[in-house]
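Example for reference:
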Amino acid sequence: MDKAALRPVPPADVPRINLKGVEQRFGPIEAGVQALTRVDLAIAQGEFLVLLGPSGCGKTTLLRIIAGLLKPTAGTVEIAGAPLWIGDRRNDAAMNELGVVFQEANLFPWMTIEDNIALPLKLRGVGKAERREQARELCALVGITGFEKRWPRELSGGMRQRAAIARALSCKPHILLMDEPFGALDAMTRDQLNIELQRIWMESGCSIVLVTHSIREAVFLADRIALLSPRPGRLDTLREIPLERPRDIYVQSTDAFGEIELALRKRLDSFA
């Protein structure tokens, strides 16, 4: 039986991610930096939430806290109703809910694309035949079928990011965390991958939390946008995006899209 299927799905009224009073400080009280202050945020199962805000507002710090890569100075993080931290130890059951994609694909250059995607499964003791089957299925999901035996250096930046997404999905996480995964790509490739990411999200059913600096990308992808204030970052605005799904690239030329984008831009400009 698929181990992922054994993970309990929380009741509909229990957030998949729940942040309460989260704060993060770096360094001593006298001379340190308060990166985040009193962040309360609940994210539903299957929701696509985008973290947006000015540079240095703590977006990536907040994502790292959700990912269990950084323990908050104060407050609590719950994943599917379970604490992410138990004392100073990460809760393995909560961590198993999470997949992470960074700005760089970080594929191992000495491994084929198939082996890179299947690596988390190998580390969990999944057999070779099953690993390869799942890797092929994931290649199909992210649109890189036929490149399973290629080396990372043989793929474009966009295709490497597709492989990184496939690797993050290999253990069937209920939550996918993404830190500006398309920030280094050209505009046309970024638009294409935004459409593909929407499709992958709709097919997988997972919750996604994505960090971006792009207002347009945020509006295109999000169910809700959490706009953070300048440092110390706090939740300034929580904006629903009532645009129908699936969205194509031409939605960006509609009045409804433009009005949302303009309102967010004006709010960001007010921070300057």
